[in-house]
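hey so u asked for the seq, here:
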Amino acid sequence: MNLLEFEGKQLFAKYGISTPIGELYDGSSPLEGASFPLVVKAQVPIGGRGKAGGIRVVRDRTELDQALKEQLGTTIKGHSVQNVLIEERIESEMELYLSITVDRSMRKPVIMASAMGGMDIESVPDGKILREWIDPSIGLQPFVSDNLIRALELKGKLADQFRFVLESLWRLFQEMDAELVEINPLAVTVDKSLVAVDSKVIVDDDSLFRHESLKKHARAITPLERKAGEKGIAFVQLEGDIGVIANGAGLTMATLDFLMLHGGKGGFFLDLGGTDDPEKVKEALLLAVEARPKVVLINIFGGITKCDTVASGLLQAFDEGCIDLPIVARIKGVNEREAIELLKDSKILPALSLDEAAKAAVDISSGA
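ran it, structure tokens below
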């Protein structure tokens, strides 16, 4: 479960980690006593808010009212903004990155830290990211904190504070059954204090029976995800602009990986599973169109799901819906030839391999 920023910061405060002074606001009552400058942050369980207009620095009442008008009640990447977090603006001399997550390949928690915080961690050169793996049987040891403090070149008061923040974050990670706890940025203020300016906390859904306080925060799904669920279709909205329809979780994830290899990003993934129903395939494509990606990539390996079944469903969607999106399809397996014959006169762009299909989809999405 992805916690909202304010929920993550409530946990940070519980564990003694300093956060900006702020207030959650839903627009239902007059807002008084504002002391500027402030930061207005839309509360949605997804990254990339800043680029979507979900984070605004305001310097007076006029700018504050405009920011509230632009954010409350709007939708960011499929998520409705019901609340905003209004906080004091933190002036920083330096911005750090700090997180703890699970490295599944190493089967251990890993601490990641960087002196290049405040930006997408994916954009930070790998050599600038520090990593320390933790043996869960012995937990966080002092030498790990020492290694990071030394590498980040923190001294005196800052070194002591960083050690405290890291130890607190580790306790939160363990006690809350977290999959990820992240502070980005962890600001170094002008008076040499560390403040968690942002929060990202993901808690394992299967652990919620142990955390009654979090159950009330069960994250609302997007309207499109709800609609898909009512139709028995596995649909998850993401942050990119390339829609992915595949059959089977493994193939779906592999398709997303191939898009990333070519510089693209999935906007949603829709898992057809083992369906053999053309009507369900049709519904899937119509849902994909509602998500408004720049292009849809269909990757089907026919086994239980037969290729001609998928082709029939796609053609039905074209017949019944206004499909004006580019569609790239790689369809292999049982009844492959029949599927190719069905689709040969359609507007669907065929691809022989997943690599070719992913590259074509990325080229279309980027306008190449």
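The mean pLDDT is 89. The two ends are 36 Å apart (CA to CA).
lmk if thats what u needed
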